[in-house]
Amino acid sequence: MTERKIQVSAALLFLALAAVASAQWIEKNSRDENSFDGRVVHRHIDLAESETDNHAMVDLVLFSTKSCRLRVIDNADGVTLSDAMRPTNCIAGINGGYFDPNFAPLGLRIIDGKIISRLTRGRLMSGVLASDNAIHIFRVPEFSVHRKPNAAIECGPFLVDLAKPVRGLEAMRAARRTFAATGSGDRAALGFCSDATLADLARILAVPLGDFKIQRALNLDGGSSSAFWFRRHDGTAFSIPEEKAVRDFVGIVAR
After folding, report:
1. Per-position DSSP letters for 178-239, written without gaps between them
2. 5 lies in a domain?
3. Is residue 248 part of a domain?
4. Total structural domains in the chain?
């Protein structure tokens, strides 16, 4: 390759990288609906990325930690999210964390105040979602069982911290995603995103989603495990089903 061709190729690569770096996710439209008891809001958001043809959809269930808490639901029998939500009095919920080929949970699980599975270390296992008098997303070194949360689940990777997208996340493989997020004050959310890479999801969640500005967000088990359920104001359900059995769920219940 001649020096001239090398210079042209380098310039084109630079322009391509610059376009990706400058691209931003922009909310195109959204709609809200209240749960049957008014404690939770389901927000559906359509987004598009500037400079590309990429589109994404995000479904959030937003709630106040003063009126709701999280519950981790064990699913050893492999029932669906939809079948698990109503018997446990959940207003909304998503799938939980990772599990091994023997259907055993990977990482910390605390259910109804009892430790079911121990904290572990791993590249993806970078955070803990915990619920006590508030909702917290901890980095693993920040978490202590001495806090005695009623519910906790370990997963990862971290997506957003200090309201900024985490750098260095995987940027090639798009898949369905689920996540937990905390905002300022007493607001928190569980959510589902249509096909997106982890890097894209981090950048999406760093954009204000309506009036919800995320401070921290943690990825949960994605791909075929991803599921979302919300009990509407008329008692019917909005549901995005999982594509395989998952070991546990994270639900929102009234305090």
Report:
1. EEEEEESTTEEEEEEEEEE-HHHHHHHHTS-BTTB-EEEEEE-S-GGG--EEEEBTTS-EEE
2. no
3. yes
4. 1
Domain holding 139, by residue range, is 25-254
Model confidence over 72-103: pLDDT tens digits?
Answer: 999 999 999 999 999 999 999 999 999 999 99
Decide: 93 and 86 in contact? Cβ < 8 Å.
no
Longest dimension (CA), the chain: 70
Chain CA centroid to CA 59, Å: 10
Determine, yes or no, domain membership for 9.
no
pTM over 0.70: yes
Indicate whether 14 belongs to any domain. no
CA distance 208 to 214: 7
pLDDT tens digit sequence for 211-221:
999 999 999 99
What token pair was written down for 70? 């999280």
DSSP H/E element including 33: strand 25-34
Burial letters 131-155, b for 16+ CB under 10 A, else e = bbeebbbbebeebeeeeebbbbbbb
